[in-house]
Amino acid sequence: MRNIKKIIMYIGIPLAFFSTVLVGCQEEDAIIVVDTELIAMVKTINEVDFNNGIENVNTNATIEIVFSHTLNTELFSAALTLSSGEEAVAYSLVFSNTNSTVTLTPESKLKYETGYTLRLPAGNYTIAGKTFETPLSLSFTTAAFIPPVVSLSSDVSELEENNATATITASLDRVSQEDVSAVINLAGTATPDVDFNISGDLNIIIPAGSISAVLSITAILDGENEGNESIILSLGDAINADADPKELTILIKDALFPISLKGVFALTWDGQGSGNEGKAIHLVANQDIADLSMYGLGVANNGGGTDGLEYTFPAQSVAAGDDILVARTPDLIAAYFGACASEFEHVLLANSSISQNGDDAIELFSGTTVIETYGDSDLDGTGEAWEYKGSWAYKFDDVWTYGGVDCSIGASTMQTSSCVYPICTPALSIQGVMALLWEGSGTNGGKALHLKAQRDIADLSIYSTSVANNGGGSDGIEFTLPSISVSEGDDILLAREVATITSYFGTCINSFEHVIETSSLNQNGDDAIELYQGTDVIETYGDVIPDGTGEPWEYKGSWAYKLSGNWVNGALDCAAGSTSTQSSACVYPACD
Asked: With 570 labelled, which of 47, 233, 313, 430 sits at a CA distance of 20 to 30 A?
């Protein structure tokens, strides 16, 4: 059945107004219009010329035909057909105010990769009896279905364990004419309904014509000291779309107790006497504590299980952020630490129960309850990843790191050892350098410097940077960082063009807590980078002399990145031809 509507549309005066024959003599393909004949003058489908055999037509098709004379709408509508093989297609017709232009719209979307034919036989379809002499038969083929890509993103990469919420968005890379559905799969160390709640359906549906669907994840404050936990989301069972295989990870940051373990020591150095001098435990106050004696320590020796509370802190107050060192011989370990001993606001005398040998677990108590454990109280640590014999372990950004077994042997001070304790190193370090060049980067878009906060820094402006160009030696301080505070573990990106590198990094830009624009970055991949504290250079990437061309540290069209204390480099010009770091031959490690 055909639906016929009439709308008022100005399209000009029908050619029946003229009584003469119009002949274009100058063009071979000019239309010859005879006043006694009905002619289809203009034929379009989706606003392009409708030639017989046209392909890749959108399945939401609209056909328009302009005729030379006013139509008899009833006769015309009865004769016109649209079909696919033997199957007729239902459609509606809309006529202009002069009834000389007709618009045909199928009542439902056409099928993909299917042939259709529009037919109008010869006949009389006008009010004035004008004859349609040449039958009309126009065929077309619809386009193949190309599925969009559905991917996941989050407005945050970390959640505090205090009912913080993340908004998860499932997005299409383009609008689909079909409903898109997919299943969000959950993995990771966090447990649904225990560590987090989900608001919304994991069986997502993005309706036709829409571009996204959302749900939210809210962290649950569970009162347990279990460390940071991860939620890993991925897409599966996609219908009418291809699922992006990349996983989305959200970290739930454990709500800290008022005090927590920060480091453990079983150091051995030249000049030691009893062997107990290097036994100490480092703690940090996460909030103001009026009475520290509410807390205590225990050493679970040799994997024999907990020994219970063995040391109680003195009754004193400490402030949030204070570093506390409990040591068997405070004076001797302070001498070993040297100037770095001043990093501890409180150095307390331990009793003989602080007797760890580097293979013993350490327990932190609140009252008589264990609130945190380093190592495993039921396991001798010898040969385990957490062993710290002749060494130390240190918690950085809630992850334990290690100096390496016996790394302090042979040294007489912390600074001369092969494993300087992290609190004794600068609070800010270079994490990565970039001189990327990609499709659309321009000359300066990929010039950036990645810094990492090793500890909380109250005022970042005590640090500065410089680019030592072309091996000509140090240029001195060129950029001073802004006066802001940063937290331990924060990633700081200095960029020549923030908008450009943000586009290139995509969602990975969210892994940087601070993004700062500066015109001082002019490195080309053969230039050393200097980091200053005050007026002193505290770290250099590369060598201010000579030029880095051909040197192992060259990073032209690429990057360099510090991984586990060692520098790794992307291949030279590895970003060329890419449009994002994820699509390049050398994904920046922080984005991988």
From this structure: 233
CA distances from 385 to 25, 92, 228, 269, 357 (A): 92, 74, 19, 22, 15
Interval 208-233: pLDDT, tens:
999 999 999 999 987 676 778 999 99
On the CB side of 540, how many CA atoms lie within 13 Å of its CA?
A: 17
CA distance 285 to 344: 11
DSSP assignment letter at 423? G
> What residues form DSSP beta bridges with 569?
560
Query: What is the per-residue pLDDT across 494-505, written as a single tens digit (0 to 9) for each?
Result: 999 999 999 999
Average pLDDT of 375-393?
Answer: 97
Residue 329 three-state SS: coil
Token look-up 């014999």 returns 389
Cα 452 to chain centroid distance, Å, stands at 18
Token digits of residue 293: 């004696």
- The total of other beta-carbon atoms located within 10 Å of residue 9's CB is 13
Separation CA 333–CA 267 (nearest Å)? 9
Query: What is the rounded distance in angstroms from the CA atom of residue 162 to the CA atom of residue 15?
Result: 76
The answer to whether the CB of 514 falls within 8 A of the CB of 484 is yes
CB distance 472 to 496 below 8 Å: no
Of 415, 385, 389, 390, nearest to 400 (Cα)? 385
Question: Mind listing the pLDDT tens digit for each residue in 159-202?
Answer: 988 889 999 999 999 999 889 999 999 999 999 999 999 999 99
Cα–Cα dist 440/24, whole Å: 49
Q: Which residue in this structure is represented by tokens 């060192």?
A: 325
Q: What is the pTM of this model?
A: 0.63
Smallest Cα–Cα separation from 340: which of 463, 264, 425?
425
The structural domains of the chain, ordered by start, are 2-142 (2.60.40.1220), 149-253 (2.60.40.2030), 259-424 (2.60.40), 428-591 (2.60.40)
**Type of residue found at 99:** N
Read off the tokens for 517. 């624009």
Task: Give the integer Cα–Cα distance in Å for 415 and 394.
Answer: 16
- Among left, alpha and beta (phi > 0; psi -120 to 50; other), residue 123 is left
Backbone phi and psi for residue 329, each to the nearest 5 degrees, phi listed first: -130, 85
φ, ψ of residue 330 in degrees (nearest 5): -55, -45
Q: Two tokens at 335?
A: 């001498």
What single DSSP character describes residue 324?
A: E
Structure tokens that stand for 542 in this block:
């590369």
Question: Which of 562, 586, 532 lies closest to 432, judged by CA?
Answer: 562
Tell me the C-alpha distance between 151 and 168, whole Å.
10
Backbone angles phi, psi at 127, to 5 degrees: -70, -35
Beta-bridge partner residues of 103: 64, 94
Pairing of strands 536-541, 115-120: unpaired
With contact defined as beta carbons under 8 Å apart, do 456 and 285 qualify? no
